C-alpha cells in the first residue's frame, strides 16, 4: 500500500489511540493492586519500530509518558513472535525512572515481519528494599530501593521465564499482588498485539510503518508552529522543594527557556547538586528524557489542545541536564522519590512559559501530591499493604477559569481511591475525606482547593508511608496578581492531647488508635482577587470553598447580618486593601520571599559555578556547608556574592582535599 494521505493519517491516529485505550482498560481491570486498578498509576504505548511512543491513552492512566523513548533498551535484543522484555532498573537505559516501575515491551509481527512494538508500565506497590512500599526520602543509595531488573526477557516464544518470576517473588513483600499485576501487564500486551495487527491489516505493512512516521512528523510540525509564535529570547524561572532530606535545606530547580525560531532549549543549569536522599531524577542526560519533557508537553498542550500527543511533540526541544545535578543524578544515587522533583521541574517549566505568555498560562498547581501507603494487619494477623491515596491539591487558576478542585493537577492526573474501596481492602477507618476551605490561592480566578484525608489505624506495628510530601514551606505561586496557595500539613493525632506535626517525614510508625491527618497544598490564584465578581465570591462561600473571614481579608467582600453582600462596605473594603499594597504582587508566599532575600539569584549563580567545577561526591557536602555558614544573613546588594565565595574558601582551608573551584 502507498503512503497514507493526510485524512488517513488522522484515521490511523484514531486507530492507534483506540488500541492504546484498549490496552489501558485491560491493564486496569485485570490488575490486583489498588494503585493500578484505582489510582491508575500505569501507562500503555503503541511504539514505533525504533521504540518511540506514537500513541497512548488520553482518558486513563498516568500522563507523564506521552514522550517515552524505549530506544535505549529495544536494540539490546533480537525478537521473535511471543517475546516480552522488561526493565525496572532506572540506570539501565533510563526508561524506568525508579525501581517500582516495571516497564514491559513486546514486538508486533505481521506476516512474519516485525512492524512495531507495544509497551506498558505499572507502579508496583512494593518491590522490597529497606522500607514498606520501597520508597522514602531517607534512602541514600539506589541499592536500598528494592529489586532492580536490568533489561531482560520475561517471555521467549510465548514461554514465561520462571527463573525471573521466582526472583521477583522472592524479593517483594506481597508476591501474590506483584504476580497478579505482572499477569495483567502481559494481558495488556496481548490486547495491544491483536489491536495493532488489525490496524496493519487495514493499512498494509508499508502503509502502517510510514503512517507511524507521519504521526511523529505531524506532532513535530505542530510543536514547531507553537514555538515559532513565541518571541525569541531567554526566560528564567526557579521553584523550590521544602527540603533536600528530612530536616534539610530547600532544593532549587531552575529553568532557562531559550526560544530561537521554531526550536526550544530547556536549560536546567543552576538546579541543585544531586542529593544524598532519594529525590534525584535519573535522566542519563537524555536531552528528550520523559521526566525533563513533561512540563514542556503540558505547556505545549495548554497553548494548543489540538496537538498530537506523541514523541514527535518534543523533537524540536532540547534539554540541558547537568551531570551530577538533581535532574541528572549519577549512579548509585537514590532516585525512588524522583516524582517530587519531577513535579517541581514541571512547575518551573510552566513558570518559565508564564514569563513569555502570562495571558495563556495558568498559575502553579498545588504540587506536593502525597502518595499514602499503609502497611498494617487484619484481626487474624494477615499483612495488608496498599495505597490509600493520593492526597493533593488543586490546579492553578488560569486566564479564564478557576483551578480544578483537588485534582492533583500535574501529578500525572492520578485518580483517587474511593473511601469504600479503601475500607474494604485495608483495615483502616476513614474519618474525613474532602476539600479544605481557604486553601486555593485568591485571585480573579481562584486556585483549586486542597484535599484532606483523616484516618484511624487499628492494628499494632502499622506503618504509614507518605511519599512526595512537599509545599509545607513554599506554597504554589500565583500569577498576574494572584495569591499563593495554602501550605500542606501532616499531623498525627490532631485532636488528641499532644498533636504531632510530622512535616515532610514520610515513614510514620503507628499503633492502634493513632489518627493521621494529611492536608494537601492549594493551587495558586490568577489575577487580582479584588477583581473577582462579588457573586462568584458569594458562590464560593455557599459551596464551602472559602470562609467569611477569608472572603473579607483577600477578596474584600463584606456580608451583612443576613449573609448577603453589603455592596457599599465591600467597595470601601476593596479600596482599603488596594491602598495598603506597597509593591508589585509577585504571587509568591511569604516564606519564599524571605528565602530569596537571603539566597538571591546572584548568590545561587555563584554557588552553581562552584559546585559545577568540583567532583560530584563533594557537591552535596559543600552546598550544605555553605548554607550553614551563610545562615539567614542577607546581602546588602542582591548582586553581592562575596559571602558564598568566602564560605567556600573557608571550606578549602579546612579541607585541603577539596579541589579548587571557579569563583
Automatic annotation (TrEMBL):
GO molecular function, one term: 5-oxoprolinase (ATP-hydrolyzing) activity
GO terms for cellular component: cytosol
Record-linked InterPro entries: Hydantoinase_B (IPR003692), Oxoprolinase-like (IPR045079)
Domain Hydantoinase B/oxoprolinase residues, every copy: 9-529
Extent of the signal sequence: none
GO biological process: glutathione metabolic process
Protein name according to UniProt: N-methylhydantoinase B
Amino acid at each position: 500500500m502507498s503512503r497514507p494521505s493526510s485524512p488517513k493519517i488522522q484515521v490511523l491516529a484514531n486507530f492507534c489511540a483506540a488500541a492504546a485505550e484498549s490496552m489501558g482498560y485491560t491493564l486496569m481491570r485485570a490488575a490486583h493492586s489498588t494503585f493500578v486498578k484505582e489510582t491508575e498509576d500505569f501507562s500503555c504505548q503503541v511504539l514505533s519500530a525504533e521504540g518511540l511512543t506514537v500513541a497512548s491513552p488520553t482518558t486513563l492512566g498516568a500522563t507523564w509518558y506521552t514522550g517515552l523513548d524505549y530506544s535505549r533498551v529495544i536494540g539490546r535484543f533480537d525478537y521473535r513472535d511471543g517475546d516480552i522484555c522488561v526493565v525496572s532498573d532506572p540506570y539501565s537505559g533510563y526508561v524506568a525512572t525508579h525501581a517500582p516501575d516495571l516497564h514491559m515491551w513486546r514486538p508486533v509481527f505481521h506476516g512474519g515481519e516485525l512492524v512495531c512494538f507495544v509497551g506498558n508500565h505499572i507502579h508496583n506497590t512494593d518491590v522490597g528494599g529497606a522500607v514498606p512500599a520501597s520508597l522514602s526520602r531517607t534512602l541514600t543509595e539506589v541499592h536500598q530501593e528494592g529489586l532492580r531488573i536490568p533489561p531482560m526477557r520475561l517471555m521467549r516464544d510465548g514461554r514465561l521465564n520462571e527463573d525471573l518470576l521466582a526472583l521477583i517473588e522472592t524479593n517483594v513483600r506481597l508476591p501474590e499482588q506483584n504476580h497478579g499485576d505482572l499477569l495483567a501487564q502481559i494481558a495488556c500486551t496481548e490486547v495491544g498485539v491483536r489491536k495493532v495487527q488489525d490496524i496493519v491489516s487495514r493499512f498494509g505493512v508499508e502503509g502502517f510503518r510510514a503512517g507511524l512516521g507521519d504521526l511523529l512528523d505531524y506532532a513535530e510540525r505542530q510543536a514547531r508552529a507553537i514555538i515559532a509564535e513565541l518571541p525569541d529570547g531567554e526566560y528564567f524561572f526557579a521553584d523550590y522543594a521544602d527540603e533536600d532530606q528530612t530536616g534539610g535545606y530547600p532544593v532549587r530547580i531552575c529553568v532557562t527557556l531559550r526560544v530561537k525560531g521554531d526550536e526550544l532549549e530547556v536549560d536546567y543549569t543552576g538546579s541543585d547538586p544531586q542529593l544524598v536522599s532519594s529525590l534525584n531524577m535519573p535522566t542519563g542526560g537524555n536531552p528528550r528524557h520523559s521526566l525533563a519533557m513533561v512540563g514542556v508537553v503540558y505547556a505545549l498542550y495548554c497553548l494548543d489542545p489540538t496537538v498530537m500527543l506523541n514523541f514527535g511533540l518534543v523533537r524540536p526541544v532540547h534539554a540541558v541536564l547537568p551531570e551530577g545535578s538533581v535532574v541528572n543524578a549519577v549512579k548509585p544515587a537514590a532516585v525512588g522519590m524522583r516524582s517530587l522533583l519531577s513535579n517541581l521541574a514541571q512547575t518551573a517549566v510552566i513558570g518559565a512559559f508564564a514569563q513569555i505568555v502570562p495571558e495563556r498560562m495558568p498559575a502553579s498547581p498545588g504540587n506536593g501530591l502525597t502518595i499514602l501507603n499503609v502497611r498494617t494487619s487484619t484481626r487474624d494477623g494477615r499483612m495488608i499493604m496498599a495505597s490509600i491515596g493520593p492526597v493533593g491539591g488543586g490546579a492553578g487558576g488560569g486566564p479564564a477559569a478557576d483551578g480544578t478542585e483537588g485534582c492533583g493537577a500535574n501529578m500525572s492526573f492520578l485518580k483517587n481511591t474511593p473511601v469504600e474501596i479503601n475500607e474494604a481492602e485495608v483495615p483502616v477507618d476513614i474519618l474525613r475525606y474532602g476539600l479544605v476551605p481557604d486553601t486555593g490561592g485568591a485571585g480573579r480566578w481562584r486556585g483549586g482547593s486542597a484535599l484532606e484525608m483523616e484516618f484511624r489505624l487499628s492494628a499494632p506495628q502499622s506503618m504509614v508511608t507518605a511519599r512526595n510530601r512537599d509545599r509545607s514551606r513554599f506554597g504554589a505561586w500565583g500569577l498576574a496578581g494572584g495569591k499563593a496557595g495554602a501550605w500542606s500539613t501532616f499531623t498525627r493525632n490532631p485532636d488528641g492531647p499532644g498533636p504531632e506535626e510530622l512535616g515532610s517525614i514520610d515513614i510514620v510508625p503507628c499503633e492502634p488508635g493513632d489518627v493521621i491527618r494529611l492536608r494537601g497544598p492549594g493551587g495558586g490564584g490568577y489575577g487580582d482577587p479584588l477583581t473577582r465578581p462579588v457573586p462568584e465570591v458569594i458562590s464560593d462561600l455557599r459551596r464551602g470553598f472559602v470562609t467569611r473571614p477569608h472572603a473579607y481579608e483577600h477578596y474584600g467582600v463584606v456580608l451583612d447580618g443576613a449573609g448577603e453582600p453589603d455592596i457599599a462596605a465591600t467597595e470601601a473594603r476593596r479600596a482599603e486593601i488596594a491602598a495598603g499594597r506597597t509593591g508589585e504582587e509577585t504571587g509568591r508566599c511569604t516564606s519564599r520571599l524571605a528565602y530569596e532575600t537571603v539566597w538571591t539569584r546572584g548568590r545561587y549563580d555563584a554557588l552553581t559555578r562552584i559546585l559545577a567545577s568540583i567532583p560530584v561526591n563533594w557537591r552535596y557536602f559543600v552546598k550544605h556547608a555553605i548554607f550553614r555558614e551563610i545562615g539567614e544573613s542577607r546581602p546588602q546588594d542582591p548582586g553581592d556574592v562575596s559571602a558564598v565565595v568566602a564560605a567556600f574558601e573557608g571550606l578549602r582551608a579546612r579541607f585541603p582535599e577539596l579541589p579548587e573551584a571557579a569563583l
